[in-house]
Write a structure and sequence with these properties.
Blueprint lengths: L5 E7 L1 H4 L2 H11 E7 L11 E7 L7 E4 L2 H8 L1
Parallel strand pairs: 2-4
Antiparallel strand pairs: 1-3, 2-3
Length: about 80
Amino acid sequence: MEMSDIIIALMPWLTLINSEKRTDDINRYGLKSVTHLPRSAFKGSRVQTCILDMRKGYTGGKSIHFLSARHLEADHG
């Protein structure tokens, strides 16, 4: 199996906001988008999470998406 140039990662928000070097490294790899997840996405979670969509070498615009608890409830009934 080969390694992919596409990374979809579930990460704590602190990954992005607590380290300028780490944020620069992620951006330099090719950050395409960040999706914010509400704390209620994972029952009992005490950590705010996000999904990073990274594509090796991507240099285009970045987007940020916000999922609300309503979005999650609609998807999981």
